[in-house]
Amino acid sequence: MRAQEQPDLHRILAEPGPPVQAPGWGGLRAALVAPDRQVADAAFTRLAGQLIDPVAAGPADLVGPLEVLTGPPHPNRPRIALLLGVLVGEDATRSYLPGQVRDVLVARLDELLALLERADAERCLRTAVLLLLAHLPGERDRILPVVARTTEEEEFARIRRCLTEPDLADPGCTAGIGRAWPSPARWAQPESIAGPVRTGAELAGLWDAETAALRAYQGARAEHQIHQQIGWPDLPEPPEPAVPAPSGGYRRLLEAEVAGVRAEELRREAAVVPGGNWDGAVTTWDEDGHLRRGLRPAPGPVLDVACGAGRWTRVLAEQVGPDRVLGLDAAAPLLELAREAVPGVLFTEGDARALPFPDGFLGAVNCSDALHVLPDPHRVIAEVARCLHPAGTFTLSTYRQGTRAFQRHFQRCHERVFGQRSFAPEELGELLGSAGLDVVDTGGPGTFLFITARRRGAEAVQPG
Asked: How many helices (H) and strands (E) does the chain have?
């Protein structure tokens, strides 16, 4: 039952006032700043439950959380900032809190901005507050001067872009689409968008997707910093937004029109949110090392399926020679880049769900950083199994689902924008098993997932 159907569910308050809060709220407020971490963690878990789903958990206001947020240093300050950043991002789609969170934050905006300039503000708190502010474009003129004084260039450029209201009739505005992620500061002066002419609706969709991507990047970064510096208790997961999933058009824009400018840099940045690789713990050496260790080709060609611009095709060519390697991808512009990057390899345009090879033809197959963006991954895996030599290996790298509630929330936001997904290891194991492949090695730090699989019974078959 929604709030408007329940007369006893109070409107969220921005300022202290008559005692209309839920029973026991004063005790919760005190517990949020308790020196005992167990008490404070339990209080934050309760607060998150009340604010994420007040219909289920009971009414709550924002007086106490905002006073904690703007008060003395405490581990719950950055946590509350991120919680409010999540809530204001879902404000428009959650009918039991229509516009209320935004109204509360605007009413207390000066106090929030002051947090960016306070000497006692932790780095994770500043990052989380910036996410919160990135959802208030109507206050752009008040926010940007403070952000400009208190943040580095890349972060300021990201927040400024999030607070910009688009004029899609202005060529200067539309030229910047696709040149803002993960920060406009990474890009030189944009030129006009290449490719087909887009309608106003298409441009608006790309703009909104890019804005969502930038906010997810900022939020995931804040969540990681809080995890590293403070930690998280167990929390209820925010619900799915009540909006249709994007088609992945923003990812295709980056791939087809700007990836050639800096393909490898964009690929690394694309892995940061779903892979949780904010500290650079997973390097190209790690990714390449997994492929080299797992690759045990049987007789036959070695296929790099969904090869993209040839990042891992090059590794395969170094291992077995370019004349033995095939590259397949559905995106012709990326294949042109691959042909330039890895001469001597035969590249072909094709669908990973219908590989153009006979049964058992391929000595090995690799699918790095791609399964999560391919439609029908079960069909892709079935095709790989069909074409794989009985003694061949299948190596793949993708992303596992985050286990922390807000980590998974921002990972999911990123997936919606980029038209991709992540996997539970057990789910991927079942997909491989149903295709007749057995996992022989699995690993990967954080939410990276590296897997090597072989045909069932392959231990009895020796490569020739």
From this structure: 20, 7
- Give per-residue pLDDT as tens, 131-140: 999 999 999 9
Burial of 267 (0-12, 13-18, 19+ CB in 10 A): middle
Alpha-carbon distance of 261 to 171, in angstroms, equals: 21
17-32 residue pLDDT tens: 433 333 444 678 889 9
Name the strand (E) or helix (H) holding 332.
helix 332-341
Contact 366, 305 (CB under 8 A): yes
Tokens of 435: 């295709």
Euclidean distance between CA atoms 177 and 198, whole angstroms:
12
Residues 6+ apart with CB under 8 A from 353: 374, 375, 376, 379, 380, 383
Query: Please, what sign has the CA dihedral across residues 83, 85, 88, 94?
Result: negative
Res. 229: pLDDT tops 80: yes
Q: What is the value of pTM for the model shown?
A: 0.88
What is the spatial distance between Cα 181 and Cα 189, in angstroms, rounded to a whole number?
14
Provide CB contacts within 8 A for 23, sequence distance 6+: none
For residue 110, CA distances in Å to 59, 116, 133 come to: 26, 10, 11
**What residues contact residue 100 under an 8 Å CB cut-off, 6+ apart?**
11, 12, 91
Please confirm whether the linkage preceding 182 is cis (ω < 30° from 0).
yes
Tell me which residue has tokens 């998150």: 48
Q: Which residues contact 431 (CB under 8 A, 6 or more apart)?
A: 377, 378, 381
How many C-alpha atoms does 223 have within 13 Å on its Cβ side? 27
